[in-house]
Amino acid sequence: MTGEISRSPEESEKIGKYIADKLKAGDVVGFTGELGTGKTFFIRTICNTLGVKDLVTSPTFTLMHIYSGREKILHLDCFRIKSPREAEMLGLDEYFNSRYICLIEWADKIISLLPESAIHIALRHVPDKPAWRAITIRGL
Ligand SMILES: Nc1ncnc2c1ncn2[C@@H]1O[C@H](COP(=O)(O)OP(=O)(O)O)[C@@H](O)[C@H]1O
Ligand SMILES: [Mg+2]
After folding, report:
1. 32 secondary structure, DSSP code
2. 50-61: pLDDT as tens digits
3. Is 37 in the pocket of ligand 1 (CB under 6 A)?
């Protein structure tokens, strides 16, 4: 487990690239953190590093976006998912057991569905430091 402090979006981009370079087909990455902590920001950096040319935005209403870069990527936003049961009905576990790299916002909502091998990235605001983020990475 590693803990990092990012002091700016540029620093977060560097950390995002570092994460992206370690990812391989089939990895599942769960992001947790309040609104505005940078879940989408990190996923955008990771996708771009992996060669995705599409605009990466949060799939808040559509639930999931599929991108194709050097790997196939599933970008999931669980904000509106009410229970792991609902996620199961969407067939998400099939993606979690595939060659897709799965990048999941609000992963705590479906934590029981994530594989044991999942990578966890927790993002936190830092009091009085609007551009700082505390980042905890587990399982990378
Ligand atoms: N150090 C930082 N790391 C990441 N994002 C930052 C940082 N400082 C400011 N930001 C800003 O915080 C916002 C994070 O938004 P977003 O990624 O949509 O959050 P979430 O998906 O967690 O709701 C972006 O506008 C980004 O520019
Ligand atoms: Mg988001």
Report:
1. E
2. 999 999 999 888
3. yes
